[in-house]
Amino acid sequence: MTGPSSERSWWKESIVYQIYPRSFNDSDGDGIGDIPGIVEKLDYLDELGIDVVWLNPVYESPNADNGYDIADYRSVAAEFGTMDDWEELLAGLHERDIKLVMDLVVNHTSDEHEWFRESRQSTDSDYRDYYIWREGREVDCDGGPRGPDGEAPPNNWESFFGGPAWSYDEATGEWYLHIFDEKQPDLNWENPAVREEIYEMMEWWLGKGIDGFRMDVINIISKPEGLPDGEDDGAVVRGAEQFVNGPRIHEFLREMYDRVLAGRDVMTVGEMVDLSVEEAREYVGEDGDGMSMAFNFDHLRLDFGPHGRWDRGEWTVRELKGTITHWQRGLAEDGWNSVHLNNHDQPRMVSRFGDDGEYRRESAKLLGTLTHTLRGTPYVYQGEELGMTNYPFESLDEVRDVDTLQNVATAKLDGRIETREEALDLVRYRSRDNARTPMQWSSGERAGFTDDEPWIPVNPNRGRINAERARADEDSVWHYYRRLVELREEHDVLVYGDYDLLLAEHEEVWAYARTRGDERALVVLNFGDGRPRFDPPAEFDGEDAELLICNYEAAASAVEPVELRPWEARVYRLTG
Ligand code: ISL
Questions:
Q1: Distance of CA 468 to the CA centre of its chain
Q2: Does the pLDDT at position 12 exceed 70?
Q3: Is residue 141 part of a domain?
Q4: Is the pTM of this model over 0.90?
Q5: What is the dihedral of CA 504, 481, 491, 375, to 10 degrees?
Q6: Is 216 a catalytic residue?
Q7: What pLDDT is stored for residue 2 in this prediction?
Q8: What is the total count of domains within the chain?
Q9: Which of 34, 216, 355, 500 is catalytic?
Q10: 387 and 516 in a common domain
């Protein structure tokens, strides 16, 4: 339904810039970023050259999960502004030829959504079946939550945020399902009325002229009949193998496509939990569900520990290139990749995959080179273009994120974290709040983000790392990103070219070729602070070439053996 992988489309040629509005720019001094704040920065986005903005949720919400708990799908939260402000944003983006993609969060709503308020009133409510309610069950084992008569939750599924995926509700004496926070009850997609409401809501936003949707955890909306217990201990969360890519998922997404998306030139990107390449093709392939592309997280799991995400393991360059290469190959003929190394749920990429100390600038540029020269649509998360880093948490009081707080509490209860320092180490490495500290516009006390106390602390490195300084410095990460954007516009081979991994076994260097007919590019990335030699494979050695971009002073008129400098990135275009 999306056409072959080599077919041209605007969303393949675009660079998407992700805005987390709460942390982007505050226009009214309440410490919370807002939509007029984004409008003030439209020229900034235009100068960077990006093509699409993906805006995280701005809808009315009690903010148990920063807007991913939506109380009214057809509104703009007062703290972010008004619908008029939003209209102004859309018009301002379109004037600059930038498209707008909105976040679609339809696995769950807020418990303060009027549907849920109604649903919890009584078992006879017209809205009861909008959500997933069940009676508790008798069990003889100890531990875990209990209803008033000692009954256990309906099954053993766990929430992504730690603890059981069910909460008991006194009013009707039943439990409701929430795969995320207890304030995020899961919608019942089995109910056609729910689906109809969602499709109408999507049409309403499309009618306003938006250019697509980023679909939150969209591959978990179909739950199996009988809601069986989870059995796979290795699952991302207990029960996941039951509800990830559930039995009716493709039926629902095709219905959504036929009903809402067919015939519209929009971009859709599905955020997919625990996705394999084969499954991805079923969503985004030619015979798939009509979705443009999907986010997968395989490469962002390489540093998980034996206990999963809230445990730390080691990743290697070979694993990283192996995992990403697997996806590059898997969607080469059918489907399309989205390329991302960080977002609002992940630590900052330069702290995780680069070096946020001595080689911060070089490694941030190298990672940007990677995301802009792989085959797929690059996603830039706000501040990445400045090389923003993780935050040096000194106390859990600085943490705002429900996921961090609940998972740290669970890990303490399980005895996996014993000391305060262990907890802080993990938070500094893993917390979603690393990405959510305010965008650093200037060196001022509040980084030019707000005039008042920000909702989350500003990174103390704002004096060194900020947009004002980066724009005044030709050698900054920001200017390098601008050039990457231009390169992708100028050279089709970087967008549509085939990807071929070179030197697969190399421990430090990631090299690959991009090929499209006669056009060839060669990307060489030194993933570390060593000085390895790059010996070009025979087919490239000595070939005439132009060095399109490099994060060091360099000149070359041919591809030749070279000793790479720490975190050096080179992109050649073969001219012979
Ligand atoms: O946060 C995670 C990894 O750090 C994931 O487990 C994340 O919860 C998952 O990828 C789903 O994320 C999306 O849905 C959540 C919301 O909290 C996230 O911000 C959103 O991106 C629930 O709506």
A1: 26
A2: yes
A3: no
A4: yes
A5: 40
A6: yes
A7: 66
A8: 2
A9: 216
A10: no
Supply the DSSP symbol for 332.
S
pLDDT at 142: 61
Report how far ligand 1's centroid is from the alpha carbon of 345 (Å): 6
| Domain harbouring 37, CATH code | 3.20.20.80
Question: How would you class 215 by CB atoms within 10 Å of its CB: exposed for 0-12, middle for 13-18, buried for 19 or more?
Answer: buried
Backbone angles phi, psi at 574, to 5 degrees: -75, 130
d(CA 361, CA 551) in angstroms, rounded, equals 9
Mean pLDDT of 294-299: 98
Tokens representing 115 are 């549907």
**Residue 310 sits in the same domain as residue 449:** yes
Instruction: Assign 404 to helix, strand or coil.
Output: helix
Mean pLDDT of 466-478: 98
How many C-beta atoms lie closer than 10 Å to residue 494's C-beta? 25
Q: What is the CATH number of the domain that holds 547?
A: 2.60.40.1180
Decide whether any atom of ligand 1 lies within 6 Å of the 381 Cβ.
no
What's the rounded mean pLDDT across residues 181-205?
98
Same domain (yes/no): 308, 211: yes
Q: What is the mean pLDDT of the chain?
A: 96
Domain carrying residue 24: 10-107+188-478
Beta bridge partners of 502: 511
> Ligand 1 in contact with 106 (CB < 6 A)?
no
Instruction: Say whether both 397 and 443 belong to one domain.
Output: yes
- Of 109, 182, 186, 217, the one to substitute when testing ligand 1's pocket (max ligand atoms within 8 A of C-beta) is 217
Check whether 470 has a pLDDT greater than 90: yes
- Measured in Å, residue 52 CA sits from the centre of ligand 1 at 21
**Domain identity same for 207 and 272:** yes
Residue at 512 is within a domain:
yes
The pLDDT of residue 359 is 98
Examine the domain organization and report whether 361 and 434 are in the same domain: yes
Amino acid at 456: I
